[in-house]
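Let us work through a complete example step by step.
Step 1: write down the sequence.
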Amino acid sequence: MSEDSMVELKDLSSQERKDLLEAFLLKEWEMFTSPAAQYLWPWEERRWHELLFCLFFAQACPPLESATVREVIDSLAELSMLEVSELAETAHNWKKEGTYTPYQQTLSFLVQEQGLEKEQTRSVLQSFAEAAAAIQEQYGGKVQRYFRQYGEQMLAEAVKTFQLSELPEDKQHRAFTHWLQNTLNMPLSLREPVVEMLCEDFDLTYQDLQDTADELGLNLALMDDIIANALQVFGTDSIE
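Step 2: predict the structure and record it as tokens.
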């Protein structure tokens, strides 16, 4: 990055720099050439939708088949009917049918028309809402933070469990992070030098970068690769 660009960034507020960082990540995602299929959950909202699918299938089979439940969840997601914050607000209201909001009425209709009984529909949506409330209250509405909490515990325990005598602890941490990324698609970052470099260029902390990725719903393993690709191919000038 040029000195003039660095001065201009430092003149901006922290929020303005975070907004620029968000725009940078989105732009580089659009230019990213690696196959999206190699990332099981490139966007974290899909993990949330998968939980709703599993809850729905557990309560609606029979009569519904797995493929039907999947289609319903996909359709509701496309209609933006499965947002964590919106579902969470209904957690204490599904047992009071006469007080349903227009959002609840629409959601109930779309689910019940698949052939469920009214009470079965209510039960499914109650589970959706309670799960959403838990994620909203404990993890700020970001399901990836639930996984990351346990991923970080697994990393700490892995170093103690394996006790690799020929590998320094920092390299063990990196290796186990990479392992959890590859096998579990765990939302953890390797924090490669290029990631730290990007934080310095934007005059932001790593936590700022992680929070920005979380707000976008971008998987941290994918974020690592997007940043590495951008800075290795185009250099730091790519953020100007």
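Step 3: interpret the result. Residues 45-139 form one domain.
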